[in-house]
Structures are given as C-alpha cells and as structure tokens.
Amino acid sequence: MKKYIDINDIKNIPLIIKEAIDLKKAPFQYKNLGTNKTLIMLFFNASLRTRLSTEKAAKNLGMDVICLQINNSWNLEFEDGTIMNLNTSEHIKEAAKVIAQYADIIAVRAFPTLIEKEKDNAEIIINSFSKYSNIPVLNLESATAHPLQALADAITINEFSKTRKPKVVLSWAPHPKALPQSVANSFVTMMQQLPVDFSITHPKDYELNSNITKNIKVNYNQEDALKDADFVYVKNWSSYDDYGKVLHQDTNWMITKNKLNNAKFMHCLPVRRNIVVEDAVLDSDDSLVIEQANNRTFAAQVVLKQILEKLNLKTENLTGF
Ligand code: AN0
Ligand code: CP
Predict the structure, then answer these.
(1) What is the pTM of this model?
(2) Dihedral sign (CA 221, 223, 224, 230)
C-alpha cells in the first residue's frame, strides 16, 4: 500500500481484515519491520483513540513515533500564489517537505471547516501533505473521511457476525455540536464493499453526500429501519445540504435499549451519554464500542505494515554503484 488516505487505497478488503485479525493474535510478529523508520503524526484537532492506537500500532512494528499537536502552532497556508500578509506564517510547500525529511510516513488529522463545503470536499489539507511531502500519508480523519475507523469497524463486524450476511443499519442520532460527516461517509463506503445487508436511517434533511451513499436505501422511520438489525452503527453528523448546520436535536432519535432490541450497538467514540445513546445500552453486553476502539490498533497496524512493506521494497530496489 502506497498511502492510506481513503478506503479505496485498500486493494483487497476481506484480505486486509483477515491480516488485521492475524496481527491481533500476535501483535509483535513484525516488530523489526519498522526499525529505523519514523512516523510523524500531526493533529490539527483533538484525539484520544486515534492518537494512542496509531502510536501503539507503529510501536508494535518497531517504528519511532513523533507526535505534534499542530493547532497550537502557527497557521499554515494551503492556497497557491497567496500573498501571505494575513494570518498564515508558513506555506504547506515548505512545511511538508521539511517534515518529510524527518519522517518516513506522515499521519494527519484535520477536520472539515463545516463552513466551506467545496474546500472541505477537495480535501486540501491531507492532499497537500501528500502532494508536497512525497512520502506516504495516513489519514487520521480528514474533512470527509475516517478510513482507519471504518477499517476497525469492519474488523469488529467480522468478529461479531453470527450470520453470513448480517443486517447493518447506520442511524443518525442527535448531538448539540456540529460534527463532521467523515465517520459516516467512511462507514458507508466500507459497508458497500462488504457482504452485508446495509441501510441508513436519519431524519429528513440529514442526507449524506449522494456521491457516497449512491443507491443505498434510506429509511426516515428509525423504528422501522432498526427492525431485525444485527448491528446498529450510531453517529451524529451535521447537515450536508445545509452545510455544517445542526438543524434540530430531535431527542426521539436517541438510541435506547428498547429500540436496539437484540442488535449489537456500535459507535466510534467519543459518545455523549443520554444524548446519542442511553446508559442502559452503553453499559450492556450489546455494546461493542470498547472492542471497536481496541480494533483501532490493529486497523492502524495492518495499514502501517502494508505501507512499510512497500517502502522497504523500494529501498531494496535502489540501485547504485
Ligand atoms: C468527531 C467526529 O464526529 O468526526 C470525531 C469522531 C471520531 N467527533 C467529535 O468531535 C465529538
Ligand atoms: N474514534 C476516534 O477517532 O476517536 P478520537 O477522536 O478520540 O481519535
């Protein structure tokens, strides 16, 4: 694998899930693969799981890790040809090239603005790091995607599935803050490529980007949509059409034990208790959230392993005098 910016960077999804589960059984089996290789992680936004699980994954492979919370630093400029007489102090062209001298892989978390839709959709931050650093880039949640989360979710569904074609429902839930569509987008993209019976439920006006949802069934009646589900994946996102807006906080959409019935509950975390989902669900055996977070390590590890293998191959093929 050359980079992991989007789910489409995975060649074979069933195979990568299997490889991740193998790594989970013996996490240190490739502890020399990353010797003398450095992962630099840049966080423009806060993180608990991504920050820790990705570092753990890299260390399981023997890598060195440097982490920078870049939002406390000066603002970077991403536009080409700007006269930089305002708030930005350094251009991505220099910054990415400099960081690439210290790193073998760059990982970036940069949430959307949720104001400028076109800019967010263009994925300017992560794509600029990729373009100007010229080394592999790992997406730690960008403006429109969270592919490491989706891979961890796919691993979790694979592990807990009792049928060959489980019914998986993505349900919107309320939240007081405007949140990105990234987690939902990547989950939808991942589910479209797995042998699952997949549908989405959300209130009207919370349609996701139709280029991502394509012909997936959307049911505006949550109760009806959740019937006979094996997995209910819950996530809030702000409106895509009325971009970045919290249109309403309909408390009826909160997930309860009653609505869940016998399904397993999934959420990427962090989750707001008794807003998104009631305590009785999170505190029950039907909640998979802790296992999902555990699988973040093995999702990151399998991706880093495949990137390192590609990098090592490149080094071996270098010819000289
Ligand atoms: C973020 C989001 O919804 O994208 C990160 C989730 C992994 N959520 C919050 O900031 C609460
Ligand atoms: N699920 C997830 O990405 O969590 P963090 O925001 O804590 O990294």
Answers:
(1) 0.97
(2) positive
